[in-house]
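Risk register update: the risk of archive-format incompatibility is retired. Evidence:
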Amino acid sequence: MLQTTTWEKLISKKRFESADKKYSSDESVRGEFQRDYDRIVFSSSFRRLQNKTQVMPMPESDFVHTRLTHSLEASVVGRSLGRIVGKSILERNPQLTQEKHIQEADFGDIVAAACLAHDIGNPPFGHSGEDAISSYFESEAAQPFMRQLTEAQRKDLQSFEGNAAGFRVLTYTYPAHCNLSGGLSLTYTTLATFTKYPKESLPVIPKTKNTSEKKYGFFQTEKAWFNTIAQELGLLKKSADGTVFYHRHPLAFLVEAADDICYRIIDFEDGLKLGLVDQEKGIGLLKQILNDDPNRVSTIKFYDWREEIGYLRARIIGKLIDECAAVFLEHEQEILAGTFDTPLINLLDCKPVLDEIKMLSIEKIYRNLPVLEIEAAGFEVLSGLLDACMKAVFLPESKRHRKLADLIPAHYIELPEQVSDYERIIHITDFVTSLTDQAAINLYRKIKGIELPRMY
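Archived output:
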């Protein structure tokens, strides 16, 4: 008999590690999943995204997207996807409304909150930053500090993953901050929807075609917590051994789709407006996605090609939202049974054009010379910061290293003696990952003596 999960289990208002029960019972004003969204918005980790790379590292133009604006836009797209899908799910499962008081808006709020947080764990310099952290922990310089680590703990660090760092941001509370654990104390459903890769770093599954197996979603420090969430929501297990390895929460496919839509289209728009992509070619590709009826007559006349791009982008996003929602609903039973594991955007008729846009973006935008130069510098910056912080924590007898330790916020390094080496290292990566692009560069310059702080 085919194993499956149910929406009754998957949609839960239970909060992770929460001791705070003093909420209004009137959810018509502000539901539990909207509370999740609001908690993320007001978190310091979310605020830092305003100075983290999306397309161009440290852009001089105020038009170019940062991680914060990208996350906000993805959440808007995600909310629409969630509401469209939720409407159909509730029509087929009226007991969700009757027994659990789930509304169409709840689906939108869940996906919007998960989208809002989807990049919250990204280090400085984007995906290049992840590579820089991984490379440091693979280097000879890091090996003396990693002797006591298990194979899985080493893999967490040597294949550093922003998604896992994000799950930690949402669920971990530093002992120096508060005696209540649970991070932002989000609902189980929002946390599971956030987790696009519901597995630990091992085993690695080379050349897998399943999108949820390409990366991992939590560190060893949060493995037990995710396992609790998965069991509470009835996520389907992928392994019979002790590995924490599950099928996705179905709504995670909508988070992935919202991210795909935004970075494919809006990053491309940035590239066009920055002059990195040929205007005529770019507009032509955008029009191909719309595939308008040749007899369609528009009364709109554009006098600025940039405004035309904005108009095309708005129409394209609306079209892709409708089409991705339709693909999800078409494959809903397969998703619930764990037999579907591919990005929704891959099943759209316009995928060949989206792929062409992606390749053009890689060539003209992401591999633009200034981007490559800053990313290369970012490798040096993050490696230098990690090495300095590791020595400050593990070699405190040195006067030089003690001085460096004074520059690290206390809650990252003042830990109980019984804490393992792995946990100490994770706390160091928490610190480096939390930095904005500019803050990382400034700190690196100061500890290397390249730039001295101003004396007031």
